[in-house]
Amino acid sequence: MAIVPGAHERELETIDLNVNVGPQHPATHGVFRMILTVDGELVVDLDPVIGYMHRGAEKLSENCDYRQAIGYQDRTDYLAQFNTEFCYVMAVEKLAGLQPPERADYIRVILAELNRIASHFMFMGAFGTDIGVFATPFMYTFRDRETIQDLFEEVTGERMMYAYFRPGGVAWDVPDNFEARCHTILKDVRRGVQDIDRLLTHNEIFVARCRGLSPVSPEDAINWGFSGPMLRACGVKHDIRRAEPYSIYDRFEFEIPTGTSGDVFDRYLVRLAEVEQSARIVEQALAQMPKDGPIVAEGVRKILKPAAGEIYQRSESPRGEYGIYLVSRGGDMPYRLKVRSPAFCNLSALRNMAVGNYVADAVVILGSIDIVLCEVDR
User: Fold this and answer.
1) Closest of 132, 140, 343, 368 to residue 270, by C-alpha
2) Which residue, 4, 40, 146, 330, is most buried by CB atoms nearer than 10 A?
3) Cβ pair 200, 194 in contact under 8 A
4) Bond prior to 318 in cis (omega within 30° of 0)
């Protein structure tokens, strides 16, 4: 057989392939779809596809009275239900001119911070699986997350969708053993953080998969609309609880953990450190909380009819800036309700963060964003 001169010097002709990743849960953290364009193992393009989970929570809320709409907020970020309720009821209170009693404010903060801890535990368990550390991270984090969920169930009567916060306060008072239970939970939380730290933070494979992967500069993070741990991992020391204190957060001392390079490893470390800071806030709130007193503002009517107006209320959810834009025309139902979703904004930068990395790394980068698809799609 004749050999063509110089044939070995020709470049191989290859074509890019489109690969579907998802939509399936929990592999893509919800029914999320990535259309990857790959050249071998290298990602050269990424098209994020959302909308499979859309249920119209915002429009449904506009067809409920102000109290009925509380339950739909739980169903946006189902890992941070108290945080979503918190933001919504504060928005309604601004419109209606309501001031919750002090005891109710403390109950809200305690439950919201415990919910932040539970959400971060879920992230660390799932993220460990994304990296390839199967089973053990979930066993550790669910062990301690379950103690928090048990408390939430005891307080509200519900396992997931609590609808416990109310415009002007909370639905009813906490159990008599609430303070003791919280202190026990915080001990378990700190033990859990130590377990995860020993399991993942110093794990050679985990560090090799995460450190230096998908770094984001502070300028890009701000331009892309990052907030929460995603923004703070880039070194931007911004936390709404400190920058624009709401409720009673100005009464507590806590640090704002930040990263240095904005890479996947920093995103994990920031969330791990935030668990301890939330525990500090809960301890201070328990010490300061009035032992008794009203848990709902005096004279709150069952059917609220705030005066015509519009407001925007923001809060610091586990995923970042969760905001409620609310418009009233004087009736008993919101005329307009719009959610500012931190997970949606953080997810919008996925293409920029993933292109140029390997397919296996794209999965890790997606996991590091910590999305909740019901909040993205609403």
Assistant:
1) 368
2) 146
3) no
4) no
pLDDT at 1: 47
Helix, coil or strand: residue 211: coil
Dihedral, CA of residue 133, residue 139, residue 142 and residue 146, to nearest 10:
180
Residue 74 phi, psi (nearest 5): -55, -35
The answer to whether residues 34 and 347 touch, using CB atoms and an 8 Å cutoff, is: no
Cα–Cα distance between 166 and 85 in angstroms, integer?
8
Can you say how many angstroms the Cα of residue 303 is from the centroid of all Cα atoms in its chain? 31
Running DSSP on this structure, what letter comes out for residue 309?
E
Residue 204 CB: number of other CB atoms within 10 A?
Answer: 7
CB atoms within 10 A of CB 323: 20
Q: What is the pLDDT of residues 220-237, one digit of tens each?
A: 999 999 999 999 999 999
- 20, 35 in Cβ contact below 8 A? yes
- CA 163 vs CA 67, 233, 235: distances in Å: 9, 32, 35
State how far the Cα of 22 lies from the Cα of 257, in Å rounded to an integer. Answer: 33
Sign of the C-alpha dihedral computed for residues 242, 245, 246 and 251 taken in this order? positive
Q: Say if CB 165 and CB 90 are below 8 A apart.
A: no
Burial category of 30 from C-beta neighbours within 10 Å (exposed 0-12, middle 13-18, buried 19 and up):
buried
Q: How far apart are CA 365 and CA 373, in angstroms?
A: 16
Distance CA 189, CA 124 (A): 13
Q: Which residues of the chain have pLDDT under 70?
A: 1-13
Q: Report which DSSP code applies to 9.
A: G
Q: Are 84 and 77 in contact (CB under 8 A)?
A: yes
The alpha-helical segments, DSSP class H, found in 4-135 are 57-61, 70-74, 81-96, 102-131
- HSE-CB at 111 with a 13 A cutoff on CA atoms is 30
Measured distance CA(91)–CA(94) in Å, rounded: 5
Structure confidence at residue 10 (pLDDT): 56
User: What is the residue type of 355?
Assistant: V
How deeply is 106 buried, as exposed, middle or buried, from its count of CB atoms within 10 A (0-12, 13-18, 19+)?
Answer: buried
Has this prediction a pTM greater than 0.85? yes
